[in-house]
Amino acid sequence: MQLLDGKKTSHEIKQEIAEKVRTIKAEGAKVPHLAAILVGHDGASETYVASKVKDCEEVGFTSTLLRFEADITEEALLKAVEDINDDVDIDGLIVQLPLPKHISVQKVTDRIKAEKDVDGFHPINVGKMAKNLPAYIAATPYGIIQLIERYKVETSGKNCVVVGRSEIVGSPMSILMARNAYPGNATVTLCHSKTKDLNNIIKNADIIIAALGRPEFITGEMVKEGAVVIDVGITRVADETKKSGFALKGDVKFDEVAPKCSFITPVPGGVGPMTRASLLWNTLLAAQNVIYKS
């Protein structure tokens, strides 16, 4: 069993990006600039955005954080997005989710210019990804793809089961793993809450991508010998033995599943750090006009 170490790999990616930024600065070219919009005071969102700002500092990016109270109108938030769209110095924009219920996530996502949509949620980027054209790929699927690629995990002809059909992870992962490319060329089954005989479907998988948000749902008896397991889930579970009072659990029961695997991601330290690194990579691509040629 080999760990797919997202913490180590994301550090390597950040070093690569930082080196590119040093070259950019030495040549007097434009430094990548990421803007983030945070609405309200959700604790998890505060933490995520703070980590993204810190990541930008680490690699030498410029970052801008725009904060708004939870009672901001949808119209005012859309105007803020438009202002960033029009700011030629800003290369990438992320709007931290969740948003207050009175604001349409779809409207906000659609309003971000596709060429600044480094989160990869705009319909144009999703469509281009589905057609295997250059696009910003959503950070978590992109992070998983990079992890597979850097560890040289074989995917061609493999039976890949994706558990969870969210627009952010499950659905794009199913498309990416089926595309005619590497990583890809797998035979993909996309499972969800209505899937029948789920246990047996998972048991036949060469590659399992678990993204359903149910802690330790996938157990040892559901995984065949030699499988590759990528655990996207991360849930706080009460644990009195921990100083914090909780433990972080993935969708996979690691202690049972790991001994049977050829590769497996840990939780934490697997997919999470890769998501953050991929957002930086997308921002670098945006600054260099790699996806959308100017």
Task: Describe what this molecule looks like in 3D.
The model has no long low-confidence stretch (mean pLDDT 95). Helix 6 (139-150) crosses helix 10 (271-287). The protein has 10 helices and 11 strands. The chain has helices at residues 6-26, 43-59, 74-86, 105-111, 123-130, 139-150, 170-178, 198-203, 254-257, 271-287; strands spanning 2-3, 33-39, 62-68, 92-95, 159-163, 187-191, 207-210, 227-231, 235-238, 246-249, 261-264. The chain is globular and about 55 Å long. Strands 1-11-8-7-5-6 form a 6-stranded parallel β-sheet. The protein has a 3-stranded parallel β-sheet with strand order 3-2-4, sandwiched between helices. It is α/β, with parallel strands linked by helices and 294 residues long. A hairpin with a 7-residue loop joins strand 9 and strand 10 (246-249). The protein has 2 domains: 27-113, Leucine Dehydrogenase, chain A, domain 1 (Rossmann fold, 3-Layer(aba) Sandwich); 139-271, 3-Layer(aba) Sandwich (Rossmann fold), CATH 3.40.50.
Approximately what portion of the residues adopt beta-strand conformation? 15-25%
Tally of domains = 2
Strand order of the largest sheet: 1-11-8-7-5-6
Task: Using the coordinates above, name the CATH class of the largest domain.
Answer: Alpha Beta
pLDDT below 50 for ≥5 consecutive residues: which ranges? none
Radius of gyration equals 19 Å
Alpha plus pi helix count: 10
